[in-house]
Design a protein that fits this description.
The chain is α+β, with helices and mostly antiparallel strands. It has one domain. The protein has 8 helices and 4 strands. The chain has a 4-stranded antiparallel sheet with strand order 1-2-4-3, covered by helices on one side. α1 packs across α4 and α6 crosses α7. The longest helix has 21 residues. It starts with a helix and ends in a 15-residue tail after the last helix. The chain binds protoporphyrin IX containing FE (HEM). The site of protoporphyrin IX containing FE has 27 residues, from α1, α4, β2, α5 and β4.
């Protein structure tokens, strides 16, 4: 029973994240079964990459009630503080941010069903994600010189991450609306 629930959780997490269009094209060559769904065949993500990403995301969503979060606007974006009194969850938050930063840097999009994520990844070279571990979690500064990208960054921080931390999986299953004033044509 527990196993089934775990599998169900994994499937839901995948549905909520819909990783990696790119790797799907390559997956036939490299891996079979469900792995292509996980995006496991994409370059550099072989050893636990995508699996690890999913594990932390699933863990965060499952433990969302023990996560606290604060978002503050700064001139070109946001500064966020995400913490937990549970030391394991605090570690998970730190791991997740590192994993997502790596995705950002390596152009390995995730959650492509969500327009805010699609646009964030499309504009990844215009944004800067910096972090610093703090007691209980992490402080992140996410900024851009492009005002359109700043809109995406703020929308992501408040209307995806904070809501996911508040509501858990049910929020992760829904896409995030593009921010007001955003022109999808920002190149
Ligand atoms: C309780 C749930 C979650 C928490 C607490 C969390 C936490 C965070 C934090 C702290 C950041 C750094 C940016 C910021 O602070 O605004 C971040 C970024 C990110 N998260 Fe999560 N996250 C959660 C769920 C998810 C889920 C479900 C996904 C995808 C399926 C995801 C994908 C990402 C991505 C791609 C980034 C980087 C975005 C960018 O740099 O533009 N997160 N998350």
């Amino acid at each position: 029973m527990i196993e089934m629930l775990t599998m169900f959780g994994a499937a839901l997490t995948l549905a909520a994240c819909a990783p990696e269009g790119k790797s799907q094209q390559q997956s036939g060559r490299t891996m079979g079964g469900g792995m292509e769904m996980m995006g496991g065949s994409s370059g550099g993500m072989m050893s636990g990459g995508m699996m690890g990403d999913m594990r932390s995301i699933r863990g965060l969503l499952a433990s969302h009630e023990s996560i606290e979060r604060r978002v503050e606007d700064i001139p070109n974006g946001v500064r966020t503080v995400t913490t937990s009194k549970d030391t394991e969850i605090a570690k998970l938050i730190r791991t997740h941010v590192r994993q997502m930063k790596a995705r950002y840097e390596n152009d390995q999009p995730i959650r492509r069903m969500d327009p805010v994520f699609r646009e964030l990844f499309r504009n990844r070279d215009k944004a800067l994600l910096e972090y610093q571990d703090i007691p209980g979690g992490i402080q992140v500064t996410h900024t851009s010189d492009d005002p359109q990208v700043v809109l995406l960054i703020r929308q992501h921080a408040r209307h995806f991450v904070s809501e996911a931390a508040e509501q858990g999986m049910s929020r992760a299953m829904r896409p995030t609306p593009l921010p007001e004033g955003y022109r999808a044509s920002a190149e």
